[in-house]
Amino acid sequence: MRRIRPCYFNTWAGGLEAAADYVARIGSLDLRPLVANPQDGELLRKARLDCDWYAANARCFATMSHPQMEFLPAWVVGKPGVLDLAKVPREPGEERWLITMAHQPQALGDIAGRVFGLLAKMGVRHCFYAFDEASRFMSCFKDIAPHLDVLIHDESPLAETGRALLKPGCVASHRSWVANFAPGEAVFNEAPEEKIYFLGSQMGLTPHRQRQLEFLRRKFKDRLVASHDHSTPVDARRELNRYKVGLCPEGRKFTTPAMRASHTDRPFWSGCLGMVPVSENSKPGGRLEELHAAGLIVRYEHGDLESLAAACERGLALGNVERRKIYDHFNAHETVGAVVAEALAAA
Known about the structure:
The protein has two domains: 2-178 and 335-346, Rossmann fold, CATH 3.40.50; 193-332, 3-Layer(aba) Sandwich (Rossmann fold). 42% of the residues are buried. By secondary structure, the protein is an alpha/beta fold. It is 33% helix and 18% strand. β5, α3 and β6 form a beta-alpha-beta unit. This is Glycosyltransferase family 1 protein.
């Protein structure tokens, strides 16, 4: 059996340390030295949201499991300690993996390619969980692509210039960001409120979205609960299972052909919480097609208010058997840890 040592690259971290220790101390971490203006209260609030969100990823990677692999205790490392990953002695049979995500490799600037190339030469394998069209818009993608062993990405297709740089053995898969929930983190609520929770963002409150909200308020009145926080605090997410339906809008970026099947992580939060995910299809069509076909989300057509209302009604009508099926599936297969574990097993 393969013995896997995952190490998560997190720009909020510093030197190499055990993921369990990092997660345990993150709530008390003083972020003031880490932001541009420590006197800016709003900046510190956003920094805390971001730091805690990335720490939730670390928790996911520290609890990965797979029948074909043994996972050794996970590590976390930031920019200052990334090269130490190759220096620490290995256990017998240990396969060491660096996991990066989003556009965080850019924190290494112009040396990103050289750093990841050196780690590769020293036997550290690299899994990059990319989103927001990294092959098109992340400046260092061309430098790090030749050193990747696994690439999980949200583009369909990848930019051809980026795909050509991947080495022949790289395992590349099209998969958007999912839920950064650890196993058992969310509890199934047998008796949720018969309400629709709109999990949106003030940033995405376009005329299209405003029209939907006004329609839903007229239609469902106090059965609609709307949130416009760009990021729900990590510790507050579990409380959302009080609601039966999670309405997850399309997202501003997901209107181009390359992103037609992509999505935000919000439908996946909803599923992991035992809510019924109601998700908008994209303009080009085909968003979350497999989950839609399997009856694991309720989907409505882009811009169609009657379709939206009908989808919300279907979600509210589902019973606990159907909701439990959604909850079990999302927690088993649609979390960051599950997706990465499967990718590592294939590499």
